[in-house]
Write a structure and sequence with these properties.
With 152 residues, the protein is mainly alpha-helical. The protein is built from 9 helices and 2 strands, in the order H-H-H-H-H-H-H-E-E-H-H. A hairpin with a 2-residue loop joins strand 1 and strand 2. Helix 3 packs across helix 5 and helix 5 runs parallel beside helix 8. The N and C termini lie far apart (31 Å). It holds the Pfam family ENTH.
């Protein structure tokens, strides 16, 4: 385990985060790699538990509000949200539609690191997710496709 992993564990304990919240924090960490599909799958399964669902969504919305050097939190939260919209409880998509302004505002996300535009991925992912959420037919088809893929 690296230093950031140890720091994350200490924060998880200090803030008394639940198992579901810890999984979301791990999936949306600042580590320079994407969230593992096995972890996203676990989180997706947890969205069918009423208590875990609200804990997961609360942490995702919190991550989406990060900025600056925590741009990876935002991007990975969008990646996770995209996955959950397709494979998780239908309430995920419903809540996203109700809070679409939060996703829409990320179209203007800006962060530059060493002259490199790190916000571009957030802007692109938010546009794609918003388009999916606004197209009910496509959303339905994506859910069918993703759930079939998960069964394999």
């Amino acid at each position: 385990m690296n230093v950031s992993g140890i720091r994350r564990n200490i924060k998880n304990i200090a803030h008394n985060y639940t198992d579901a919240q810890v999984k979301v924090r791990e999936a949306t960490s600042n580590d320079p790699w994407g969230p593992p599909s096995s972890l996203m799958s676990e989180i997706s399964d947890l969205t069918y538990n009423v208590v875990a669902f609200s804990e997961i969504m609360q942490m995702i919305w919190k991550r989406l509000n990060d900025h600056g050097k925590n741009y990876r939190h935002v991007y990975k939260a969008l990646v996770l949200l995209d996955y959950l919209v397709k494979t998780g409880n239908e309430k995920v998509a419903q809540q996203c539609k109700e809070n679409i302004f939060a996703i829409h505002t990320l179209r203007d996300f800006q962060y530059y690191e060493e002259g490199k535009d790190q916000g571009v991925h957030v802007r692109e992912k938010s546009k794609a997710l918003e388009a999916l959420l606004k197209d009910d037919e496509r959303l339905k088809n994506e859910r069918i496709k993703a759930l079939k893929a998960r069964e394999r």
